[in-house]
């Protein structure tokens, strides 16, 4: 097991644009970086499940099962479309022509539990995640060593890298939020966010094993 070689790869993989990173960007804009980081625990919980599944060999079963892969893919796509429609129709940030501090006191609260649940829902319904774990992790496993310990170490590295990814995307979202000063700009931002989620749903439907 080469954990040092895996660490930078894990960060690069976690930084790849996808539903959860778009969610982190969105959370950074609307709820702030700290809450976006808390929400990452939902994503990490889902990925921990996938890592466990891969560790016991069930990842190969999903790779081999057309029906299972397709079912999970459609559930994930529908969820993304629902989030996209919700963001498209949102009127949050309307009237953001005030200064940042004043606007912060007026914007609606974003419960952390809700954000965690959203991140979990996006991650657990993305079949590409488990396919990724099933395909990448075995390449870093030394057959001469106990596999369970290696999966634990590599999995922990990857899960930590997801927090790095969230910090990057949420910070970017926070910076985007600073540009919103008019109701029209806010509406455009909401529609752009909705379009990204719906686009991610469409891309997910094209995913192949």
Explained architecture:
With 209 residues, the protein is mainly alpha-helical. The protein has ten helices and no strands. The protein has helices at residues 3-15, 19-30, 33-55, 59-64, 66-89, 100-106, 112-124, 127-136, 147-177, 183-205. α2 runs antiparallel to α3, α3 (33-55) packs antiparallel against α9 (147-177) and α5 (66-89) packs antiparallel against α10. The two termini are 26 Å apart.
* Helical proportion, percent range: over 70%
Biggest beta sheet attributes: none
As an assembly, this protein is single chain
Number of strands: 0
Which ranges are low-confidence, i.e. pLDDT below 50, for 5 or more consecutive residues? Answer: 94-107
Give the overall form.
globular
Overall pLDDT level: 75
- Kindly name the structural category: mainly alpha
Count, helices:
10
Give me some keywords for this one.
209 residues, mainly alpha, 10 helices
Element layout with pairings:
Elements: H1 3-15, H2 19-30, H3 33-55, H4 59-64, H5 66-89, H6 100-106, H7 112-124, H8 127-136, H9 147-177, H10 183-205
A few lines on this structure:
The protein has 209 residues and is mainly alpha-helical. Helix content is 78%, strand content 0%. Helix 2 (19-30) crosses helix 9 (147-177) and helix 2 (19-30) runs antiparallel to helix 10.
């Amino acid at each position: 097991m080469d954990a040092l070689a895996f660490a930078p790869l894990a960060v690069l993989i976690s930084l790849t644009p996808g539903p959860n990173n778009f969610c982190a960007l969105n959370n950074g804009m609307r709820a702030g970086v700290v809450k976006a980081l808390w929400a990452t625990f939902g994503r990490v919980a889902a990925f921990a499940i996938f890592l466990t599944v891969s560790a016991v060999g069930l990842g190969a079963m999903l790779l081999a099962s057309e029906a299972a892969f397709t079912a999970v893919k459609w559930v994930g796509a529908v969820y993304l479309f629902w989030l996209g429609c919700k963001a498209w129709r949102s009127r949050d940030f309307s009237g953001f022509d005030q200064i940042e501090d004043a606007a912060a006191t007026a914007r609606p609260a974003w419960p952390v539990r809700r954000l965690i649940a959203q991140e979990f829902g996006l991650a657990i319904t993305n079949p590409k995640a488990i396919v990724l774990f099933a395909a990448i992790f075995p390449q870093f496993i030394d057959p001469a060593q106990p596999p369970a310990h290696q999966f634990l170490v590599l999995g922990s590295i990857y899960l930590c890298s997801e927090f790095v990814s969230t910090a990057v995307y949420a910070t970017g979202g926070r910076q985007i939020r600073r540009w919103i000063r008019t109701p029209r700009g806010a509406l455009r931002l909401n529609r752009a966010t909705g379009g990204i989620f719906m686009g991610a749903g469409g891309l997910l439907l094209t995913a192949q094993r």
